[in-house]
Structure formats: C-alpha cells, structure tokens
Amino acid sequence: MRKLLLFLALSAGVVALGISSGAVDAAVEWRVKSGLMDAGIGEKRATCMAARMTDRLSILQLRKLQNMEAHDGEAAEPTGLGDYIKRVRRIGDAEVVAVTASSAGLCAIGIG
C-alpha cells in the first residue's frame, strides 16, 4: 500500500511538472496544427493558426473542431481553408468561427 501511495504521489508530481512547464500546451498545439494540416492547410499557416487558436479557445471548443464530420457528398477531410471554415460554421459556436477565421486571415498576411 505504501508503494502505491508513493507511486501516485510521484505520478501527480510528474503531471504537475508537465502542466507547469507547458508540455501539455505544446501537445495540444501540435494536435491542432496536425488537424489543420490534415484539412489541407499549409504547414506555415497551420503553425501560426494553431498557436492563436490554442491561446484563444477552450479545450471543449478545440474538441468540437476535432469532432467535425463531413455531410453527405463531402470528402471525409476538408479540402482546403474555405472548406474547413465552412465546416467550422456548422459547429454553431460563434467564438470558434471568429477565432478560426481571424487566425486564418491574420496568418495569411503574416501578422498572426
């Protein structure tokens, strides 16, 4: 029992260290970037957008983006930025739409 408690205490410490060092934020940002690239957005723009989006959206809002589904007649994955924004609008969260669209625009002109 004592070993189990020691293991749990050490595990909690490692998790707390990861959170405080930004490792969790980096992992979330990497996942958002990967999702954007899978949607046909170039790596440079996806990197910029992911940084802005993870700073401005909650984990719940980012999950909504992760769970977007194609409608009948659409490709499984969005085929570019326009298609991606169209699917984001269907989520029904105005803040997600605003952050995604503004991130896309600002990153496109290089001030994101």
Name a few traits of the molecule.
112 residues, mainly alpha, 6 helices, 72% helix
> What's the mean pLDDT score?
80
**Number of strand segments:** 0
* End-to-end separation: 52 Å
By helix and strand content, what is the structural category? mainly alpha
- Quaternary state of the chains: single chain
Runs in which pLDDT lies below 50 for 5 or more consecutive residues are: 4-9
What proportion of the residues is helical, as a percent range?
over 70%
Strand content: under 5%
| Global morphology | globular
Radius of gyration: 17 Å
Please give a structural write-up:
With 112 residues, the protein is mostly helical. It has helices at residues 2-20, 23-38, 43-56, 59-66, 81-89, 94-108. The longest helix is centred in the first third of the chain and has 19 residues, at 2-20. The chain starts with a helix and ends with a helix. Residues 4-9 have low confidence and may be disordered.
Task: Chart the SSEs and their pairings.
Elements: H1 2-20, H2 23-38, H3 43-56, H4 59-66, H5 81-89, H6 94-108
Helix pairs in contact: 2-3, 3-6, 5-6
Q: What is the gist of this entry?
A:
This protein has helices at residues 2-20, 23-38, 43-56, 59-66, 81-89, 94-108. The protein is an all-alpha fold and 112 residues long. Helix 3 packs antiparallel against helix 6 and helix 5 (81-89) runs antiparallel to helix 6.
